[in-house]
Amino acid sequence: QVQLVETGGGLVQAGGSLRLSCAASGRSFSNYAMGWFRQAPGKERFFVADINWSGGNTYYTDSVKGRFTISRDNAKNTVYLQMNSLKPEDTAVYYCAAALRGDLTAWEPEPRDYDYWGQGTQVTVSS
């Protein structure tokens, strides 16, 4: 089992940047695929980006391609989401998630494809 804690959220103006971090505790962090999802008020939780166990493969939802970058440091048990050129529509609670399978799915993931979740961190982008 793994415990996940997100940090780095906050309030930023449109066009600005934020870097989210997700620290994992527990065993075998380097075996997990890691993902970021987000949930706006009154909406479902949607996929943002994920990264495979080694960091060699990544995948992004179309709306964040070219603006967000996911990375991981297995020595620090941490996954990151660098968010640039932020837009008001990026406003949401951002959740970190871990998947036992280690590799990316062959489809854009849904929340049910992930096994463990953090508590979330709020990102607010003002216009």
Q: Element order, helices and strands?
A: EEEEEEEEEEE
Structural category is mainly beta
Mean pLDDT: 96
What is the end-to-end distance? Answer: 40 Å
- Summed up, the helix count is 0
Number of strand segments: 11
Query: Gyration radius, to the nearest Å?
Result: 13 Å
> What low-confidence regions span 5 or more consecutive residues with pLDDT below 50?
none
Fraction of residues in β-strands:
over 45%
Shape descriptor: globular
User: Percent helix among the residues?
Assistant: under 10%
List strands and helices in order, with pairings.
Blueprint: E1 2-7, E2 10-13, E3 18-26, E4 33-39, E5 45-51, E6 58-60, E7 68-73, E8 78-83, E9 92-99, E10 116-117, E11 121-126
Parallel strand pairs: 2-11
Antiparallel strand pairs: 1-3, 3-8, 4-5, 4-9, 5-6, 7-8, 9-10, 9-11
Task: Explain the overall architecture.
With 127 residues, this protein is an all-beta fold. It is built from no helices and eleven strands. The strands form two sheets. Strands 2, 4, 5, 6, 9, 10 and 11 form a seven-stranded mixed sheet that branches. A four-stranded antiparallel sheet has the order 1-3-8-7, with no helix packed on it. β4 and β5 form a beta hairpin. It is globular.
